[in-house]
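Lab notebook page, bench 4
Experiment: in silico fold of construct C2
Operator: M.H.
Input chain length: 196 residues
Purpose: comparison with the prior construct
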Amino acid sequence: LTALGTGPNMFVVKLDPQGKVLWAEQSDGPASGRSVDIDGAGNILVAGAVSVAVKLGSYNVDPVNGTLFVTRLLPSGGFSWVKQQKATTGQSLGGLAVQSSGAVFLATSYSGVASVGGKSTVTVGSGLLVAKLGSNGVAIWLAAVPSKVMPDSLAVDDASGRLVVGGNYDGPGETIAGTAIPAADEDGVILQFGST
């Protein structure tokens, strides 16, 4: 691979079991892939961030439309769709998880209004956003939780669809869904969400 544009490129490389390169795809400029997963059909899902406009295949990814993105690559290579998350301020990617059915889950933090995959939600102050997208990248639901939890990772139970978000909490204490989180200074926290 040769770097395109300025700054580091995001790239995805598929290898066979012996380590032979089958294909490679990359951004045409600065982008960072931060989380990756594979669905039951072999599609590769990548979530990441941009600070300047780049292209992923034929798809434009412009920070004007949100600095966070999720994209799907086909098993044979090539980007099949890209969705961006736009928020008023303070976006941070926590994690990506995919069910074998192709449903995509994202955990992010944000402030104000956030939108992804055609749906939007609002929170007062900072919040944790968990989103479920269909295999086509269209949002099925968004769950906004007013919270100072900063997500770091995300896992999904394939059979039940339950989600587990791991992260850290730095704040005076708060209550999420009836569970008290005590005042903490960068303490670890694990949250579980239902499938809907």
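Observations: The first strand starts at residue 9 and ends at 15. The two ends are 41 Å apart (CA to CA).
Next step: discuss at group meeting.
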